[in-house]
Automatic annotation (TrEMBL):
Residues 44-178 form the Nudix hydrolase domain. It comes from Streptomyces omiyaensis. InterPro entries: NUDIX_hydrolase-like_dom_sf, NUDIX_hydrolase_dom. Keywords: Hydrolase. This is NUDIX domain-containing protein. It comes from the Bacteria. The lineage of its organism: Bacteria, Bacillati, Actinomycetota, Actinomycetes, Kitasatosporales. SUPFAM superfamilies: Nudix. PANTHER family: ADP-RIBOSE PYROPHOSPHATASE, UDP/ADP-SUGAR PYROPHOSPHATASE. CDD domains: NUDIX_ADPRase_Rv1700.
Length: 208
């Protein structure tokens, strides 16, 4: 038995969009169940995201501390952002986010993991990259606003983040998945065996 997610689409007999926001919307589908009944499913439609676990030569991860209003907490996170343009190359988006949020660039990129954040209620897909060979970015700093204006940037040892995840002290999903995926990769075939940065991403197909 091969444990692998597979595409499948159940028949939708009606669909509406009761809410449309700036970047996301809410969709309501009437879906035919296996027994022939019809169930209503509400979910958020999301353009997709990228996240970057940026690791320096001292085994420290570049992290951000940012206020997240829905959960009423300041969370430690890794740089991340939306795929603003349909079909956008996720690597280019990740490089942009690393520059905008942390004023950094990286010479080496790999794919750490691809995840659906909350597949029961949202179609958001996130590609998490591993970025190494870090350096300060060039040119002017990106002008931040709103929650990002209060954002803190730090470099924290990977081991300390692992401890915080397992202790229930760190909760951002991209940070949790990225940190544990890196540890798993090192314990397995090594980070050089990770997928290349331009690996196909069926959840959000892109142009090279």
């Amino acid at each position: 038995m091969q444990v692998q997610d597979t595409p499948e689409e159940w028949r939708v007999v009606a669909t509406t969009t009761p809410f449309k926001g700036n970047k996301t919307s809410v969709r309501t589908d009437d879906v035919v169940m296996p027994d022939g009944s019809v169930a209503r499913r509400d979910y958020q439609v999301h353009p997709g995201s990228v996240a970057v676990l940026a690791l320096d030569d001292r085994d420290r991860v570049l992290v951000l501390r940012q206020y997240r209003h829905p959960v009423r907490q300041k969370l430690w996170e890794i740089p991340a952002g939306l795929l603003d343009v349909p079909g956008e190359n996720p690597l280019h988006a990740a490089q942009r986010e690393l520059y905008e949020e942390a004023y950094a660039k990286a010479g080496e990129w790999r794919v750490l993991a691809d995840v659906y954040t909350t597949p029961g209620g949202c179609d958001e897909a996130v590609r998490i990259f591993l970025a190494r060979d870090l350096a300060e970015a060039e040119g002017e700093r990106y002008e931040v606003s709103e929650e990002e204006a209060d954002m803190e940037v730090e470099r924290v040892p990977l081991d300390e983040l692992v401890r915080g995840v397992l202790a229930g002290e760190l909760h951002n999903n991209c940070l949790v998945v990225g940190v544990l995926a890196l540890v798993a990769a090192r314990a397995g075939e090594g980070v050089d065996a990770l997928r290349p940065a331009d690996a196909p991403w069926p959840a959000r197909p892109f142009e090279a």
